[in-house]
Every structure is written in structure tokens, then in C-alpha cells.
Amino acid sequence: MTHAPTSAAPRRARTRPGITRPGVRMIAIAAAAALALTGCQVASDDADTTETGAAPVSVLLDWSPNPDHAALYTAQYTRAYDDAGVDVTFMTPANTADAAREVSLGRADLAISYEPDTLIAAEQGLDVISVAALIPTSLTSLIARTESGITTAADLEGRTVGLSGLASQQPTLDFIAREAGIDPGSISTPNVQQSLNQALLTDQVDAIFGAFRNIEGVELTAQGDFVVLPATELGVPDYAELVIIANPSRLADDPDYAERVRAFLTGTAEGQAAALRDRQVAIDALTPETQGSYDPDVLELMIDATLELLPEGDFGRQSAEAWAAYATWMYQNGLLETEVDGATATTNDYLPGANG
Hints:
This protein is of the alpha/beta class. It has 13 helices and 10 strands. This is ABC transporter substrate-binding protein.
């Protein structure tokens, strides 16, 4: 069966290396500086077109290529971005918290971020807005070895829980602890950054929080007996785990930028549709991009777990009301210091079929 258009060979994505989802490769400080410099160069050239006439778009990922990016890499593999008229370069971050800053400063055209952290960025005055939901449901989970005896949040009292460093993680875990009737201060929470699985597998921590049930959860359970507790089962309301963020000032003032954002989202929607039609397309797209990071058989399990979360059609659509409600919950529970109108942090105006 042919998985890419017959008119052109499958296309490999251009991804600038950085961190890996399992945390097996760490980026050096020099590489982090290089990312910032190359990011500036990519964004500064955004008005030009490539040799093929396509408009360049730089996209900063939240992590290295992984199944959460199935729509992105399938769009690249099937040349959906070419058809949409954009030439996409994916960049991996030096830090998982880079996204909002880089987009706000114009160093990246777009970035993959998280709904909670996009709202935190809005509170901090960063110039970002979510233009699409890439993964429209929460993935964040608490994961522990079965033998640890951790089966509920109440079992975390006096334990060590590794975090990956996102601004939303500590206050969310504090909320979960309070809901379970234990003192958040009794939990030790080292920042293990990208090494979530490694920290758990080497018994540096009793549990990890911030791991994704469809990525780390699948990978760990393939290796042994682990308990995976989604945050939504621990009292946290559902939200869009991964979102695509843009710069709203540029959207308003730069018609070329706005058109490139629309074209990118059109291509990404086609990529998601192709992946949902045939999982093998997503496997073929992601396998070379994740080589060395995941066991091939486990990668397929991760892709299956991810595709189950994606809607058929209506790619990227977000509810302003849901964002407003989640922002209110964040404020009421200490994740935001001031009230933020979540409805203003998201828009559907650049999705396929939207008027604009």
C-alpha cells in the first residue's frame, strides 16, 4: 500500500536536535545558545520564500519528535505542508519552558506548548495565543512502580516525586495533594527535567508527575509493572495538553505571518487526517524521526495510544468557554496569581474553514 502521494516521494522532516522525550540525550549549554541564535535567524527571514516558492515556517516543539507530534510529522511525510504552500522547519527546545518566550520574542513563528503554561504565559504578559489544539485532552499523569505501594495520591505523603520543570506542575501536584488530604510540603519534588523515566527506573524518585500516559506510560508499562494515574482521575479538570501557539501581535499586524499560520494549520489538519485514516502512515513518518529514542514495537503502541485521542475531523478546534473555566480553576487553586480571561488566550480564527 502506498502511504504518501504517488506524485512525490515521502519527505523527511527537518528537525534541529535538542532533547529527547525519554531523556536519553541531554542538550549542552552551547547548543541551547545556538538554538536561540538560529531561531532568531529563522524568524527574521520569515517574509522570504524558499527556492520552491513555499513560505518558510519555523516551529519550536515542546520536546523532541514523539507520537504526540503525529499530525505534524505525517503532514511533512505526506507533503501536506508542501500542498499548503509552506516549508516547515521543526526545532527542538533547550528547555520545555522555552515555547512562549521564543514565540513572544519572534524567535520562532509557532511553538507547541501546553494549555496551562499558555495561560501562565498570558498572565506574565508574554505575547502568545493558542491557535489550535494539537492534543485536545489531558495526558499528564502520576506514574509509580506497582511495588511502591502508590495507588492513590494519598500515598504520596513523605515520598519523592520527580517533575520535568514546567511552571504548572508543582502547583498542580500541590492541588492533588490537598485534594487527597495530605500536606503538599511533605512531598519532595526534584526537577529531573527530561529524565522522567530514567529517574523512576533508577529509583531516584518514588514516582514521576508530568509524564504522559500515551508516551512514558506506554513505554514504562512495556518494561514492567507500573501504576499510571491520569491527573484527571486525581481531581484535575480536563484541558488541551498540547496546543499550537502563535504571536497575536504579529497575527494582527502582519498579513503574511497570518497567512503562513493558516497554511501551516491547514497542512497539519491534513496530516492528522492521514494518520487517522492509516496508522501505518504515522508509523512511517515518525520512525526515522524518533530513531534511537524508542523501541520500534513500543513506538507503534505509543502511536496507537495517541491516535485514539484525536478527533475525526474538526482539527484543532478549541472552546473559549472551556479555556475560561480552566483559567478560573487555575486561579482558584494557586496555579495563577491573578485572574486571567482564558477565553482571550485562544482562537479558532486560523483553523481550516475559518473566516479571516
